[in-house]
Amino acid sequence: MPFDVIHHQRDENTKLAPSSLGRVHPLNKAPVIEHNGHILCESGAVLEYILDQSTQNSLRPSKDSEAYYAYLEWLHFAEGSLGLPVITYLLMQMETRSGDAPLDGYIAKELNLDLTYIDQTLAKQLYFSGDVFSAADIMMTISLEIAGSLKLLDNRPHIQAYLARVQARPAYQKARAFG
């Protein structure tokens, strides 16, 4: 699928998206895709839309395969179960906290639960839907990279090995070159 990447620079002070993005989609959030009259935001929706445009579904297991439902779970786990505690933890690092508020305990518990589940899964298989890279891996990678930057993966060897595998892929490196 041919594409153009349009960069919208975040505000240097607030780190929020610029108003130019709001002219593309009313939520003023990225990523956004505009194609054939459709304008979608939300990473998962954008990725599903792109997959639906192709007759080659190498990034999505066949619905009649055993890998499909694992793929489906991880595709949604990325921004559902994992996204909230990772982003909340990131935001909590931006302020002085005593560490004893209910939110601190909840986020710590959820991060441990999620990251343990992920690490145990990756101890048994190379990728989230089995031994073949899929769109679920694309969705999971960014939250895991953020978790790594926050030092949340220091004792998670299988997640670290997974990220090294993903980051070594030529397609990952090509995508990173876009910014």
UniProtKB/TrEMBL annotation:
It comes from the Bacteria. SUPFAM superfamilies: GST C-terminal domain-like, Thioredoxin-like. Pfam families: GST_C (PF00043), GST_N (PF02798). Residues 64-179 form the GST C-terminal domain. InterPro entries: Glutathione-S-Trfase_C-like, Glutathione-S-Trfase_C_sf, Glutathione_S-Trfase, Glutathione_S-Trfase_N, GST_C, Thioredoxin-like_sf. Residues 1-58 form the GST N-terminal domain. Belongs to the GST superfamily. This is Glutathione S-transferase.
